[in-house]
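2024-03-11 09:14:02 INFO worker-7 job=invfold-0412 stage=load source=structure_tokens
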């Protein structure tokens, strides 16, 4: 399978602090890749460097064989991005936000179909600010899928969703993966990671402490439950101040 994302020796520093330290990873077409780690482990910086919104100090990054700095416009048309915190006009409605997003791309999918698939088509005329947290989260996933992306970046994709909605989203993403979509996600829900991810990378203080499959992570630890395995790799058991 073709590498859709390839990162080699990625390093990013902020003054004397090394946020990302010589990270290597690759993501194959039609797979789901999970980037895991505690808050401050370097996940956001890694994603920003991959997308080209921040410039790495060292190393190379390619998305679909393209340089995210030199070929940013081409990449923009083929990549969908969903983040927890999204900026939008105060009174904009769901319909207006979807229409605006669609206007940015040459080729798009029918956002009404996506809204229906994610269970929020009845909110078409509602102001985005009046949606519940879970409804907003689903909307932001819809926005990321509007450009018919070949690669989509999903940040904490099911935060705020109830158990049924989370499973519905998992099913939709599994179907999209079967159609060839490459998914790069972050999550603090280990059951989600187990269900969705073909490969995972666990970061700790900017360094990779594990890279492989969930099954391999379990085999390399003294635990059988993946949540315990994750905590073991990241040493989060004793860190009460971290948000998991």
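2024-03-11 09:14:09 INFO worker-7 stage=emit residues=244
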């Amino acid at each position: 399978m073709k590498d859709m994302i390839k990162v080699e020796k990625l390093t990013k520093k902020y003054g004397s602090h090394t946020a990302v330290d010589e990270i290597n990873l690759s993501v194959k077409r039609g797979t789901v890749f999970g980037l895991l780690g505690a808050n401050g482990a370097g996940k956001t910086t890694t994603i920003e460097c991959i997308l080209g919104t921040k410039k790495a100090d060292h190393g190379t990054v390619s998305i679909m064989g393209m340089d995210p700095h030199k070929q940013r416009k081409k990449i923009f048309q083929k990549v969908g991005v969903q983040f927890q915190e999204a900026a939008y006009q105060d009174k904009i409605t769901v319909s207006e936000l979807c229409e605006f997003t669609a206007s940015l791309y040459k080729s798009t999918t029918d956002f009404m179909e996506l809204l229906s698939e994610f269970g929020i088509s009845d909110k078409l005329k509602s102001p985005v600010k009046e949606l519940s947290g879970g409804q907003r989260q689903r909307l932001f996933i819809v926005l990321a899928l509007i450009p018919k992306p070949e690669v989509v970046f999903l940040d904490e994709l099911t935060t705020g969703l109830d158990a049924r909605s989370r499973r519905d989203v998992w099913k939709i993403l599994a179907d999209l993966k079967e159609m060839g979509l490459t998914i790069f996600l972050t999550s603090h829900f280990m059951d989600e990671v187990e269900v969705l991810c073909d490969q995972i990378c666990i970061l700790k203080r900017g360094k990779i402490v594990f890279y492989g499959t969930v099954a391999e992570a379990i085999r390399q630890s003294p635990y059988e439950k993946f949540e315990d395995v994750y905590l073991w790799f990241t040493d989060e058991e004793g860190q009460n101040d971290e948000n998991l």
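2024-03-11 09:14:09 INFO worker-7 stage=report msg="The beta strands are 3-14, 17-28, 32-37, 58-63, 79-82, 151-155, 182-186, 199-204, 207-212."
2024-03-11 09:14:10 INFO worker-7 job finished
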